[in-house]
Specification:
By secondary structure, the chain is an alpha+beta fold. It has nine helices and twelve strands. The strands form two sheets. Strands 4-3-2-6-5-1-11-12 form an eight-stranded mixed beta sheet. α4 links the parallel β3 and β4. The protein is globular, with a radius of gyration of 18 Å.
């Protein structure tokens, strides 16, 4: 009870200062309600991630700190396809990708195809802040993470029996002699995680983390580690994190396109997101969605799948979470 009162007081105080806001996603996919206990767990984890980031914002912390804190909670949960609980490649390995971007300087960092980094979002931030690069992949990214004090784990840390079962089901559906398919349309829940935050200084930040798609070709990178495709933040427009069939998000540079429509055509965030997700992606066959916040603390969630796990705390401190359709 005391904790709740303290949090309410902090939220009320933030309303007096510059507005803060945070939004997260846990992947877009087919609408299939999980068992009640698991559904309850998903909501609880989404709320825990939101509060981890929001409490930092209320204390005057940076948007980049809030994004990292929220995504770490989701990476540590086996319920999502990021960090522990990531899906397997066709060879039975977990290859993880993440990116992060700050909207004031437009600094960015990302890692791809890492197999031993416990929290890829931490490694992505280290690339942004401690290297002259934006994207590091594979062994080089892992060695960089180790040298910079990012926690390293054995590859089997990421394994869960549910994800292993999904790989076996995927293998059973493959036709011998034909190219393997990692089409996410057959997957119940894509599970990529992401966060966008706005801090008291008016700075936006965005981050995304994923294990990719079940049965993906080893070495494949989707949109999640690619700045402009899966993640983008610009204080002049918005912060965006994407989830879905990455190849389509890459081809359409989705995160940047939304920000560009805001800057060059003066479209509100909600309009720009709707056009890109529903009128650009959907006709092309791209399934998925986005979360975003603009510089006025307006929050947008837009998706063209049957369901998308998401949650937010708006400028007034109102918290909401959802896992299925609209």
């Amino acid at each position: 009870m005391k904790t709740a009162l303290v949090y309410l007081l902090m939220t009320s105080m933030s309303a007096i200062a510059a507005p803060v806001a945070i939004v997260i996603h846990g992947g877009a996919g087919n609408e299939q309600r999980p068992p009640a206990a698991e559904e309850k767990q998903r909501h609880a984890t989404l709320e825990r991630a939101l509060r981890a980031g929001h409490e930092l914002l209320l204390r005057g912390g940076s948007a980049i700190d809030a994004v990292e804190a929220a995504i770490v909670v989701l990476e540590d949960s086996p319920l999502f396809n990021a960090g522990k609980g990531a899906v397997f490649t066709s060879e039975g390995k977990n290859e993880l990708d993440a990116s992060i971007m700050e909207g004031r300087t437009r600094g960015a960092g990302a890692v791809g195809n890492v197999t031993t980094v416990k929290n890829p979002i931490r490694a992505a931030r280290a690339v942004m802040e401690r290297s002259p690069h934006v994207l590091l992949v594979g062994r080089g990214a892992e060695e960089f993470a180790r040298r910079n004090g990012i926690e390293i784990v054995a590859p089997d840390y990421f394994r869960t029996e549910e994800r292993w079962r999904e790989l076996q089901e995927w293998k059973a559906k493959q036709t011998p002699g034909k190219p393997q398919s990692a089409n996410p349309a057959a997957q119940e829940h894509l599970g990529t995680v992401g966060c966008v935050a706005l801090d008291q200084n008016g700075t936006l930040a965005a981050g995304t983390s994923t294990g990719g798609m079940t049965g993906k070709q080893p070495g494949r990178l989707g949109d999640s580690p690619l700045i402009g495709a899966g993640t983008y933040a610009d204080n002049r427009a918005c912060g965006i994190s994407c989830t879905g069939h990455g190849e389509f998000f890459i081809r359409n540079v989705v995160a940047f396109d939304i920000a560009a429509r805001m800057r060059y055509q003066n479209q509100p965030l909600a309009d720009a997101a709707r056009v890109v997700v529903q009128e650009v992606l959907r006709p092309a066959g791209g399934r998925g969605g986005i979360i975003g916040i603009d510089r006025e603390a307006n929050i947008v969630v837009e998706f063209n799948t049957a369901a998308m796990a998401r949650g937010s705390i708006d400028r007034h401190g109102k918290l909401s979470t959802a896992t299925l359709g609209r």
